[in-house]
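Format is sequence with structure; example below:
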Amino acid sequence: MGKFMKPGKVVMVLAGRYAGRKAVIVKNIDDGTTDRPYSHALVAGIDRYPRKVTTTMGKKKIAKRSKIKAFVKVFNYNHLMPTRSVLIEHAHYRKMNFCYLPC
């Protein structure tokens, strides 16, 4: 079976403080290391999603509700569920622009 936990893969966190959150694999370690002798991955994701805003809200309230909080953490593969989506880097742009595409 091929390796499917690769950088750019969108995953759902299943356990711990960030359970139910979407994340993207930044770096994967399939064989483990001396301090972590199991397969694991460094992931970055969204901890706090933006809340719903309406047209009746003021600018201050909309700005406050539109904030996003991110997290970066190392997870065991057992605590991650891969999705079919992948973040792909466009090489023809100078900046790192990502687009959200299903595999």
Observations:
- The chain has a mean pLDDT of 84.
- The CA atoms of residues 40 and 76 lie 4 Å apart.
- Strands lie at 9-13, 22-29, 40-48, 69-76, 80-89, 98-102.
